[in-house]
Amino acid sequence: MDYYIVIPIHNEEAFLKSTLDSIQQQTLPPKKVILVNDHSTDRTEFIIDAYCAKSILFKKLNTTSSTQHLPGSKVINAFHKGLKLLDDNFEFIVKLDADVILPSNYFEIISNHFRTDEKLGIAGGFIYEQNNAGEWALNHPMDKDHVRGAIKAYSRACFKTIGGLKNAMGWDTIDELLAKYYGFKLRTDGTLKVKHLRPTGRSYNKKAKKLQGKAMYTMRYGFVITCIASLKMALKNKSILSFWNNMAGYLNAAKNKTPYLVNQAQGKFIRNLRWTNIKRKIKA
């Protein structure tokens, strides 16, 4: 199957080589890889140029944006710019981070999943991060059917139907909710172990960590579900502050009448889906 990869990149000189090497070693190589150099101030562009010079597989795009590393807006804005350089002649498309190492058969396996299930919309492996003992341990804070934003692959049909990726925090949850709304399936493959070289959220600033509640508002969770989700997050993080930050973000978004990212019908579907999952976990 033909596929493209778009990689938003900002100051990734420490990890980028490992990511690009793992792409070059794929048993099923991509048609093209767009490397979006998003306002990097380190040696990132030098590394990109070296790989572009060695292989026609890679194509560079320089872009300028804020130096703040906010989840969602910066990354997806860069992704969209890279996407404009590609045509629609692909079976699936990949949004990849610049700080991961993929197993060599990663996209061959992903391709097999898409080929054997025409209703499969989003697929990916699992993220592993090094713990204090230096061991690579599974890092998956959400449900096991969730594909992490660092390694998301979309079938062409699903990507087009959901309208691409939303330029906002929570984009990697909204995409899956909309995929389900339109009847697509999600699949995570536990045999595909991806090494994530930078712990999740390490580069985000304090402002970014207060946007989760706003994202819940824009997804039309409603107040009660947002309370439950925020409490669950606080217990997992062992931080009551994260609960209050989430709720403050939600209430501020409501006060400011922040535009929703989904319509009323999609919002109703999302709330029903969330309630179903909550009840299932309570019974379990």
Automatic annotation (TrEMBL):
- The residue ranges of the Glycosyltransferase 2-like domain are 5-147
What are the record keywords, sorted?
Answer: Transferase
One of the Pfam families matching this protein, by short name: Glycos_transf_2
Q: Mind telling me which InterPro entries this protein's record contains?
A: Glyco_trans_2-like (IPR001173), Nucleotide-diphossugar_trans (IPR029044)
Q: Which domain of life is it from?
A: Bacteria
The GO terms this record gives for MF are: hexosyltransferase activity
In terms of CDD domains, this protein maps to: CESA_like
What protein am I looking at? Glycosyl transferase family 2
Q: Which organism is it from?
A: Maribacter ulvicola
